[in-house]
Amino acid sequence: MDFALKFLSILFVAALASIAGCDGSAPVEEPNEMVLHHVLYTKIAGLDPANISDIYSRIVASQIFETLYDYHFLKRPYELVPLLAKGMPQISEDRLVYTIIIKKGVYFQSDACFPGGKARELKAQDFVYSFKRIANIKTLSPSWACLDERILGLDEFRQYTKSCAGAEDVDYSRRVEGLQTPDDHTLVIKLTKPWPQFIYSALADTAFAPVAEEAVAYYGQDIISHPVGTGPFRLNVWRRGSYVELVRNPTFRVEPYPCEGESGDAEAGYLDDAGKPIPFADRVVWTVIEEYQPAWLLFLGGKVDAGVIPKDSFDEVVTAGGELTSAMKDRNIHLKTFSDPSTYWLGFNMADDILGKNKPLRRAISCAIDRERFIELFFNNRHLVAHGVIPPMMSSYNPEIEEKGHARYDPQKAEELLAEAVKVRGGKLPVLKIAMPGAGTWFRQYGQFLKRSLNAVGLEVEVQYMDRPTFQEKLRAGSVEMFASGASAAIPDAQEFLSLFYGKYRAGGPNAFNYSNPEFDRLYEKAQVLPDGPERRELYQEMELIVLEDCPAAFLNHRVAYVLRHDWYKNYKPHAFAFGLSKYRRIDLAKRAAYRELVKKIE
Amino acid sequence: MSERKQIIETRRPPKGRSLWKDAAGRLRRRKPAMVCLGVVIAYFLLAGSIHVGEFFDLKVGPTLWAEQVGRSYAPPSSKNVLGTDIFGQSVLRKTLYGAKISITVALCASLISIAIGVPLGAVAGYFRGFVDEVIVWLYSTLSSVPYILLILAFAVVLRDKTLFGYKVTGITAVYLAIGLTSWVGICRLVRGEIIKHKDREYVMAAVSYGCSRRRIIFRHLMPNVLHIVIIDFSLRFVAFVHAEVILSFLGLGESDRPSWGAMINDARMELSRGVWWQMAAATAAVFFFSLALNIFGDALRDSLDPKLRIQ
Fold this sequence. Notes:
heterodimer, A: 4-stranded mixed sheet, 23 strands, B: two-stranded antiparallel sheet
């Protein structure tokens, strides 16, 4: 009996111990282990490059997968440099054929999907496979829109995949004229028409990173949680909705830290590690925290290396002069600000009977919004007023755009325009509806701000709060009247913003405004094939003025990012377009340990 | 003559006190309960006056809550007693206006739950058998789902839907959600009371007189279980106010007009910048109303309890 009791007790203790081991907490950090601690403000959807559509998945995937080209970490203006390619592509005179030499000695991480679990060398064929996989209609890749009618023969391949029963039935050995591999390390891509943004939009985008065919065959649908890349890190733990952990990839080649940057980088310490092999970190950890305030407290507690400032804590961190407060300086926290390639607006549905046919009404709404007050209330005066659609950091930004006065707050003019709008309408204006892509506090206050602004000039509006998928669905269906939205550029070119107004992209496409202007479309098509230069920049500015004149949106603000880092977090130079930057980051372990000790004492 | 009058007087049964008169007398003797009743009445009058003010488009006090009275986040001062919010709106006016939303929701939800729960409970208790089994199964199933989750689910489903040609907006979705999910308690109580009463002499007498079942239930039985409904109403009212605050806090309530839950939600993030007045005002409003309702509800229950009647 005693024996049975003892046996049961031991069993019970063992069960408890095993349950305790499954508590979901992070692995213990060794004292000399270099671990980067980051926050994700929303959970990631998946780590399959072909199916990445959200920024947070892209951030994590960019540490695992690599692209042919990437942005130089330090140089500004932003410059592309070879990553998996040996050099910049050789481009034919007609700008239709790109010949790219792939680096030798690049290996996929060791994985069970390869024979014997050993790492396999990257070949040019892996790029062809990855392009075809995006074209495969069964993959349902959101990145296809980027390749549509761009690569010779790829659209036909897509047509062929429609006839296949399943994704596994697609014959990837089928020839595509525009994707050739003369040898294992040469990739030749033939375009249907010149595409000046090709390197930025496709060859430097994680969505087009090479994926091993063996991995897709081995993991099938589970490929989203089994990324097999060539990058400096590999996935170790992914607890959906709460935690992601990457560890150093042992088969990663020797890559040096950049030896040159822009002026001031050496003084800022960004070149202290020049020439040293990367990555520095042993592990990269992301904790999913959807609220800004807890993330902020983790940052102050030294549990996170860098962070953003919540709206309501801004005064605690930054003085009226834009400097860090002494409390933050005492903690050895550093502030970095940088212009973000983004524009936010209150959009009008031009297909709507009331708004689409009434330009005075749209202009009245634009005049009724006090953008400076909006930025003061919601962004602590951090953002810039959007006088047009192109953000100031773009080379095609028109410095004289402010003088055009399209973003001027003028309630009196708004009232006059409203009176004109009533005449155009031929009667009283109905209650207009604004769709908001969220129902949280921020969106509710944003909605109240818009409502107050428009009510003040005599326009009745109803704000409809909804979740983001519903909002997107309504935008696609064109069933909204006005909508609060915005866009952030993925490449340093204004074409992404202007494409939102291209007539062919209406009806479910990116043109949620349902805007159409034949002159704009003509200029857009002309600019689309032009290389970067004064001619294209002038066309962009001309197109922007057409948009402003037609007023399919009231442009509100451009984001300026304020990021904070602890003193121990080295090589933290913010970048507007690159994501795979964890390989450059380094931690001063002694400083971090000292800070954490200090926090413990304070607490 | 006077002797005859005296005989008649002595033969007349002693004048009794009704349940309601007795309860009112005992309630009046409880001073804290009377103070709380005063507070509750004040809240109700406030809500009613805002309704009237809005109906006649009177621009006074809380109906002007949207007016900018100062700068953003101005602290409490002699000009703005409870300070201002992000848009420079008076927090005092918003707090007062919040009473209208909470009381309207709680009142409508109570009426809906009574309209469903009382007849169902009465029918189940009186008829028993199959009807009783169906109703008991229905409320047992409903009560097996956690209360707040059930309300949330109803609020999400009902929101922005059109029912019988009427669009369900924020506040309507809230009281419909609460009302349609909160009738179980009152249904159980009424069913139990009816089962207890249905075999009593006065019911037997009504049956022997050939009264219809409807008449027996609603004219004879219901008046005798009405005190249960009133006690339940007073105690549940406060729970409905809380449910409205929770739903508004979660962004499922009123979005365009001030409510206590939405104010607390806004103030949650503002606390870190030292703006405490909106949180303090909304929580104080909820606290005093809940406290007053609870104390008065308890006193009302004690007063209406026949076991505590003084002979």
